[in-house]
Amino acid sequence: MLSSLLQGDSQVKYIVVDQEGKTHEAKTTEELDRIISDLKARNLKYEVKAEGVVNL
Question: How far is Cα 18 from Cα 36, in angstroms, rounded to an integer?
Answer without folding.
Answer: 9
